[in-house]
Amino acid sequence: MRNQIRIFPFPGDLFLLLLVVVSIPFIVVFSLTYPNVILEQGMSHKIFYFHVPVAWVALYGPILASLFSIIYLITKQTKWDNLAYTSTQISFLFALGVLFSGPIWAYSAWGVPWDRTDARLQSFFILCLSLVSYFVLRFLILDGKRKALVSSYLSLLCAMSAVLTWGAIRWIENPGNHPGSVLGKGGMDSDMKLTFWLSILSYHFLFLILFLVAYRNQKILKFRDELRAKQS
Asked: Record's family (predicted)?
């Protein structure tokens, strides 16, 4: 049947779920116990191993959504709009994690939870506003095709905000207190580098499982609406 919804997960889904269940608790404990502590910041520096990996997903999530949106604008197939919406949802969820963890780290490092002169912070705030605007306008527009069309253009705007946020500490001569790229010159000690990349891997597993769940939820809701339309 064309409108079938798969209820039982694929074996790969269960494997990915197992990876998330194992890797996330492991990396939290590992990041708290294994890498050395930066003396100037103390234990609060450990939030780096959560803050930066989550920020990465929050930044490239809108870029992924914009690619789906471009495909939608070309093909006008609803599944691409659903994929863009799903990617934006997960991006916003991870952005909230950044907003929660960032001030904690900033207060220990700078003495203030939010530095208004910092280019990265201000550009990330603009990104969050762009994501909120995406959801607000998508909620207000009732017509499905118009909603998908407007959402696609808003995805492009969010992607531009993400790129500007990424470039804030790279293109601006004095970006503020925010540290430079973790992949820049000087790098990290071996214990920090190992912990950092394990964190990146773990939170990407989390991103993937959340993406699958959210996308399939969209398919189920669409299938429900189609059934209701046929019955009415």
From this structure: Belongs to the CcmC/CycZ/HelC family.
